Amino acid sequence: MRLGLAASKQLVVNADDFGFTSDVNHGILDAHRNGILTSATLMANGGAFDHAVRLSHENPSLDVGCHLVLVGGRSLLDGQPLPANVPDLLKRLMRGSIRVYEELAAQVRRIRESGVRPTHLDTHKHTHLAPPVLRAVARISAESGIRWVRRPFDIPMDAAVFRIPASTRRITLMLRMLKGHTRRVLKARGCRSTDHFAGFQITGRYGPAELARLIQNLPEGVTEFMCHPGLCGEELRQASTRLKESRALELAALTATEVRQAVRDSGVQIVSFRDLSV
Predict the structure, then answer these.
(1) Residue 1 lies in a domain
(2) What are the start-end ranges of the H helices in the chain?
(3) What total of structural domains would you count in the chain?
């Protein structure tokens, strides 16, 4: 699948939520072994964290980063529930009642103590777009030497072709207002980010045809594609997440023959953050 270091278009395919449930973990490994997925970000407070760590050790070709969590699950500091949703997190940030840096640093520590050597950082629900969280993530990046940090601002996409709801398009436009600030904070800490990002607007809403079209129209440079593959077993069905059956659909797209053919035809080089760090 790798087409040579001279490729002008490179694509990192990263699965979020590694460690969420065991069936999500198995789906991520399937997408890596049989599809175009190159990396995953691990949830230190996920219910299937130990299972994900074991799978990562058994599959060293899977590049692993940290999926830092401030929404959902329990704190690694005191075992108390973290905010249930983003609005609750924002309220706690305004009150100063959540130890953001300490919590996220503890999550990175747990991942490293498991023997995993993370190469990149992102956050569950993109919470590092909130300035206090962004500052903490950038600080952790600088202190830990984990230099790659996601900038989750989607490349332009045809709303009709990709069936993007109006509500998602509005959120995307609002998030772009944070793009300059995010870039400046990360740059000040010496963080690195890919040139482009994709996946937010089409999470849970794409099949092989849409993914192939996205690949065929990638811009020059390095793009990170965020995805959420998984097997929709009973464990996932019982979990608190809106992404259930859609994870199996994303897995099917990531492993589809026509998607792998689109990579070959487009001259896109599939890489990981580990490759980019060399």
Answers:
(1) no
(2) 22-34, 49-58, 86-95, 100-113, 131-144, 166-176, 179-188, 208-216, 234-237, 245-254, 257-266, 273-277
(3) 1
